[in-house]
Amino acid sequence: MSTHGADETPRDAGYDDWLDGIEAGEGIYLSCPNDHGSLPPRRVCPHCGSPELTEEPLPGTGEIESVTVVHVAAPSHADDVPYATAIADFGPVRLTGMVRGVEPDAVEVGTTVAPTVERTETRDERVLVFRPR
Amino acid sequence: MTEVHVAGVGLTHFGRHPERTGRDLFGEAVQRAVTDAGVPRDDIDHLNYGNFMGALAERQAHQAPLMAEAGGLQCPATRYEEACASAGVAVREAVKSIRSGERDVMLAGGMERMTNMGTAGATEGLAIAADELHEVHAGITFPGAYALMASAYFDQYGGSRADLANVAVKNHANALGNEYAQYQREITVAEAMDSPPVADPLHLFDACPITDGAAGLVLVSGEYADEHAVDAPVTITGTGQGGDKMALQDREYLAQTPAARDAADEAYAEAGVKPQDVDVAEVHDCFTIAEVLALEALGFYEVGEGIGAARRGETTRDGDRPVNLSGGLKAKGHPVGATGASQIAELTRLLRGDHPNSDAVPDAEVGLAHNAGGTVASAVVHVLEVAR
Ligand SMILES: [Zn+2]
């Protein structure tokens, strides 16, 4: 657990590259010949085992499918509370992220959101964030 | 295939024992189980031991041989880790070992020490059962993950926080007479509704407590029981295990738990029983919504119908099929790595007739234990039967 911020901690290859892409507005997901979607890091499709994964552009917006407002956090997010964390449906894949740009209690299922990468209050670590569109 | 009998059960008190070491807790559970079984300790062939986060809580890995030693067992030992289903898996693998004829007498159990970590430490520890990259980074906690399942359930099938509060009230009422339970006090629906939010829609009284405790079972083959005239009327007649994608976002369903359904189907088929044959069940209610999801996965209710079971009185001690007569994880407590074995210990006592709540199910012949790991990325189900 580093206090120096995510840039100085070892990268998780695949995952951090994926975040880089979203940060640059070039988000991707992985697709197999059977049209199953998944997120990196992957060597094979988690749904069918196919090793033929191709990178496809992540749809620019998704729809919130479920949301919670966390009041009791782990130490890594202690100064961020209360925060909304949601699962959003992007079609071929779902993503899980913190919701910002709206009061946590006001986040609703069905809200259209765009993914971005921001930093946590607590440890200045990178976090996937959804902002309403 | 040989029968597997539950010859003895042993539990520690579940609760806050921050100063007690894991080895002390497990040693007590083994002592009680061996005494209850009346089987010579030297006959035990192997220890199957469940533990989730001892490396964090006590800086102690390689716990299996340590725990065999703590229990005075002169046999090899293996640790099983499957988050909150660790002990369920340890029991299941013991059942398979006895059935295969490889072993005759086994100790299966588990232990978790948690309260010494504090609330923040335990919250961090429990979160490692989720997907570190895609869930924990995004702020998901253990309650947060179940809150997402509850939110999805409400959205898809309806239900309310009051329905969930009724589950908590029921399980607290059941724990009243259970000397091993962490909370031996009744609560009201209003109290549960008014408790502080942890992860909306789940509040404090929707959540199981942070618990220290241990559980052990002595399991013996039918041949051994016959040969040594062991008094062990309860048999494990079905075992099943199911799996799902680790992260909620990668699952087909957010408000169903197919891993538990698959585990139950396997256990039912082995035992030759159907959901409607089950007289009494201990299910994995780490959160109130988890009990609802379990009732549906086990085939007791259609999807979307389990939410009102406690409110309607169908799963209370006076209901048709009492659920969590021990108090459940909610009120009895949830020492993660011990829970799966403790559920079977409670069921065994309920079926034998020596549990404080046995009078609620005097004619029960079939019991079911449902133990889930994480957000049910893993699940283990056992069917227990008693000769009447
Ligand atoms: Zn595929």
From TrEMBL, chain A:
It comes from the Archaea. InterPro entries: ChsH2_C (IPR002878), NA-bd_OB-fold (IPR012340), Thioester_dehydratase-like (IPR052513). Pfam families: OB_ChsH2_C. Residues 56-116 form the ChsH2 C-terminal OB-fold domain. This is Zn-ribbon domain-containing OB-fold protein. It comes from Salinirubrum litoreum.
From TrEMBL, chain B:
Residues 240-385 form the Thiolase C-terminal domain. Pfam families: Thiolase_C_1 (PF22691), Thiolase_N (PF00108). Residues 312-321 have a biased composition (Basic and acidic residues). Residues 11-221 form the Thiolase N-terminal domain. Residues 312-337 are annotated as: Disordered. InterPro entries: Thiolase, Thiolase-like, Thiolase_C_2, Thiolase_N. Keywords: Isoprene biosynthesis. Gene3D superfamilies: 3.40.47.10. It comes from the Archaea. GO terms for biological process: isoprenoid biosynthetic process. NCBIfam families: PRK06064.1 (NF004720). This is Thiolase domain-containing protein. It comes from Salinirubrum litoreum. The lineage of its organism: Archaea, Methanobacteriati, Methanobacteriota, Stenosarchaea group, Halobacteria.
